[in-house]
Amino acid sequence: MNAIIVSALLGVVMMFSGIFFKNKSIIKHIAAGCLLLLLGANLLQHYEIFIIKIDTHNLLRFEKMGIFFNTITIVATLIYVLLSGKDIENTGVHVAEYFALLFFILCGVSILTSFNGLLMLFLGIEIMSIPLYILTGTDKRNLKSNEAALKYFLMGSFSTGIMLMGITLIYGGSGNFQIGQAVVSSAAGTVPNASFLEVAGLLLLFSAMCFKVSAAPFHFWTPDVYDGAPSVFTSFMATIVKVTGFYAFIRLFENQNELLGPTWKIILSFVIIATLLVGNITAVFQQSVKRMLAYSSIAQAGFMLFGLYTSNDLSKEGLLLYSAAYCLATIGIFAVLIKMKDYTLDGFNGLAKTQPVLAFTATVCLMSLAGIPLTAGFFAKYYMLASVVKAGGSLWIVIVAVLFAAVSVYYYFRVIQAMYFKEGEAETTEITQSFKVGLVFVAILIVLIGALPSVLLNYFYF
Amino acid sequence: MIPLLLILIPLLSGLAVFFLKDATTSKALALGSSVITLALSLMAVSSKGVLHYDASWLPGLGGRFTLMQDGMGKMLGLLTAISFPVVFAATFKNTYQKPAAFYGLMLLTQAGLLGVFLAADALLFYFFWELALIPVYFLCSIWGGEKRIAVTFKFFIYTFIGSLLMLVGILFVYAHTADHSFALQSFYNVQLTGKQQAYVFALFFIAFAIKMPIFPLHTWQPDAYEQAPTATTMILSGVMVKMGLFAVIRWVLPMVPGAVKGHALFVIILSVIGMVYASLIAIKQDDIKRLIAYSSIAHIGLMCAAIFTQNQIGLEGVMIQMFNHGINVIGLWIVADVIEQQLGTRKFSELGGLAQKAPTLAILLVVMALANVALPLTNAFVGEFLLFNGLFQYNIWIAAVAGISIILSAVYTLNMIQKIFYGNTVEKTNNAVEIDFNVQVVLSVLVVMVLVMGVYPQPMIDLTKDTVNAIFAHR
Questions:
Q1: Minimal CA–CA distance to A34: which of A68, A82, A91?
Q2: What residues does A344 pair with on adjacent strands?
């Protein structure tokens, strides 16, 4: 509750700060301060201290995991603002508004981590998505950015429509906004009896959520939008927004296995394999690192879908770890990418000579994305795979997944090869000392979580 | 405490070397650190019983930081600890771009290798397995030959696929352990059905077979050995290939005995095919490095076949031969490096008559080469005798076919000596000079080890006896 209220208020504060402060860099610092405030407010809720007590009429349900997830997203946003704040300033003139929109997105995030019913899910998704449509189009003079924004908006509204249709059908079938009510109402021991409307509604809901997390075959918008949007906002979109989508997805469908029946696993494994296939294989052929990262984010989505596939305690911890690992690594690699003058692979040639710190931290991030041990990405993937093995049975899907992980090494390591082994003069924009310090901090965090994931997870269990 | 220090010293000194600027200082620090590791390793060998180290690591997952050094661990720890100072000393005069990074990565490789040989926890083992690979990837890709990037990438992808499959195997076994732990003992005690054993065997063995490498998964190896900087190649073929053999003995044999029995004939036949095949290709090579690479495949194939014969004598042979092969092959690589550094070529067709110019080198190489052929009085004779004995007890026909590779190895090794050292000097060797003092010392030390182990191998057999006995007691 705290996070929802405070983030909405701070969004308004950020909007007004644009009127009072003309100096752009002050706004960045205000944003960082506000994020710390938001973090504090969210942490208060860990200890059951509420800023305002509101009866939500059971529309929202706050759990430890959701609050912990909020913490992850807020910390990730803080790191993102500290690393790439300067680049947000350079995107356009309305700097305060950009930061305000980020806070509104965080408001959507905190609704999505606590929704209890389809109505709040819908609200959360919309609050999260609409600021994103704007952010995608912030580079007004750039045709690609405009195209991306329009595409994202049209496709996004379309999927929202599908989602609403699904919610309507479920409401028509069951008479309320809770899914899985049929399971509860049927007596123990009998087969739950879902009506046709409910099943159709769930399928539509499933498709819409797949769209939001860019799972195949609903992924077609992702490369264009990620490529067209200003890189600094792509970074935010590909990390915090994406993992929140997953959180909501899993929260929505957990404990629904009975209702959905065995067909569910078949559909899901199809989606997982298709996502891994499309993401990994297409990423191999990209020449632009930014576009490669767009496809790689689809591939990573394939791994996160395992959390949906199994829904046990391991996969929940895994999702938290995956979110943290994936956010850190992607924010790090995007922060480096933004500084590059040339986004193609050749543009990275010889970066290790010109900017050794950038090259080293980018290498750590890429290794984490590839899932090499001693980086956070390894344990993220490990938990996801372990949850499937623990659930028993489907060893084949794990083997398919690790083979695709080996494919992913190919395209991630091509960037490392360009930086370290190829000759060239990689050109970057001006790099400040504090930026380097920030990057090294991210790299250390990645290695720390990779060596001792229990540090992060113990905090979850207290 | 010794096992922990064995990993920590190369790890920390490796990280420290990265921050040095000066070439000589980094060389000296690397050499010093590796000598300390060697001293520690000798202490481990001289101590009685199994050394342990245990610390909490991942409480939620059931992974612990457990190290164990039994006879096999001591022997391979000693091999690793000997190899690095030998390699550093023999290549002391080589110059590298960014020397600090080179020596830092070499020491990190040593830490990874020692971790693999000492880990007694499956997850920790997997960590070190990968950590030994990453520095080697950078070493080969930065300082390697002309085609280094593509070749090293092939090597990396090959081994990475293998290790991911092994990870699935580890997860599968972990899910079936009684106490949900990654500890070696829990893995040994796991109860699996025949079908499950077959799955686990396949998942683990592919990873190890790629590393060894076993025919037909060997295609990465000759290219990688040829393109890697020679100091790294020495480590790759002297120590790193032992990871595969070691892992089969440590993890596969006691864990899934049923599946090992079921697949033994299949693996042995593949190994023997690889032996003969690699030997035949070695005869046709015109490059010293490629010749040694193929000869190495043949020797490893014999060891792998002997492991799967599952008799005591074969396994004792594997233990002693892992050590001997490491010593011999490093000696051969040092000679190859000396020739390349001095004359700028590795091709037999451009060499000849070197014995007239560098008699000491010729004498030392001939001893190393004869050890490669497994002539009596050299260390490899003892090992290969035990290996063939084991294979002979398993199946006489397979042993006969494998025996062809001994003859072939004499053909290509003696051919190599003849082409490089005898005949008339040619254009490139006209101005050759005697080898440097440091190389002479290193090669002499290796030659002494070859002869001593050839005459009196009993201490090495006694050292690893406890591992062999434990494996047969467990079955």
A1: A82
A2: A288
ipTM of the complex: 0.89
- Whose structure tokens read 């992980």? A405
Mean pLDDT score, B132-147: 87
- Specify burial of residue B24 (Cβ count, 10 A radius: 0-12, 13-18, 19+): exposed
Map residue B64 onto helix, strand or coil. strand
- Residue A369 has a pLDDT of 93
Is B288 within the bounds of a domain? no
Chain B contact for A373 (CB, 8 A cutoff): yes
Residue of chain B whose Cα is closest to the Cα of A392: B175
Residue A320: closest CA among B442, B60, B305: B60
How high is the pLDDT of residue B191? 85
For residue B183, tell me if it sits in a domain: no
- A222-244: buried (b, 16+ CB within 10 Å) or exposed (e) per residue? bbbbbbbbbbbbbbbbbbbbbbb
So what's the pLDDT on residue A201? 85
Q: B64 is written with which tokens?
A: 């612990």
Quote the pLDDT of residue B346: 82
Question: B338 with B221, same domain?
Answer: no
Contact indicator for B319, B370 with CB cutoff of 8 Å: no
Select from B272, B278, B204 the least CA-distant residue to B244.
Answer: B204
The whole domain housing B473 covers 321-475
**Mean pLDDT, chain B, as a whole number?**
87
Q: What percent of chain B has pLDDT over 90?
A: 18
- Is the Cβ of A211 closer than 8 Å to some Cβ of chain B? no
Last residue of a domain, one of B208, B240, B272: B240
On whether residue B127 sits in a domain, the answer given is: yes
Exposure of B345 by Cβ count < 10 A (0-12 exposed, 13-18 middle, 19+ buried)?
middle
What are the boundaries of each domain within chain A? 262-462
Q: Are residues B236 and B330 in the same domain?
A: no
Q: What is the pLDDT of residues B173-220, one digit of tens each?
A: 988 888 888 888 888 888 888 888 898 999 999 999 998 888 888 888
Q: What pTM was computed for the model?
A: 0.91
Q: What is the 3-state secondary structure (H, E, C) of B376-401?
A: CCCHHHHHHHHHHHHHHHHCHHHHHH
* Beta strand spans in A245-351 (E): none
CA distance A105 to A10: 12
**Residue of A357, A395, A414, A422 best to disrupt the B interface, most CBs of B under 10 A:** A395
Which of B323, B321, B331, B340 has its CA nearest to residue B87? B331
DSSP string of A93-162, one letter each residue: S-HHHHHHHHHHHHHHHHHHTTB-SHHHHHHHHHHHHHHHHHHHT--TT-HHHHHHHHHHHHHHHHHHHH
Residues forming a β-bridge with A60: A115
Name the nearest CA neighbour of A235 among A374, A136, A128.
Answer: A136
- Does A373 contact B161 at a Cβ distance shorter than 8 Å? no
B4 within domain boundaries = yes
B199 touches chain A (CB under 8 A): yes
End-to-end alpha-carbon separation of chain B, Å?
A: 30
The answer to whether B161 contacts A421, with C-beta atoms less than 8 Å apart, is no
What integer is the mean pLDDT of B382-402? 89
When the pLDDT of each residue in chain A is averaged and rounded to a whole number, the result is 86
The candidate with the shortest Cα–Cα distance to B210, out of B160, B144, B172, B255, is B160
Number of folded domains that form chain B:
2
Same domain, yes or no: B231 and B367: no
pLDDT tens-digit map of A67-77: 889 999 999 99
Positions of chain A with pLDDT lower than 50, given as ranges: 182-191
B100 and B228 co-located in one domain: yes
- Give the model confidence (pLDDT) of A286-312 as tens digits: 889 999 999 999 999 999 988 888 877
Residue B471 sits in the same domain as residue B358: yes
- What is the DSSP code (8-state) at residue B146? T
Count helices and strands in chain B by DSSP H and E runs: 21, 2
Per-residue confidence (pLDDT) for residue A461, from 0 to 100: 64
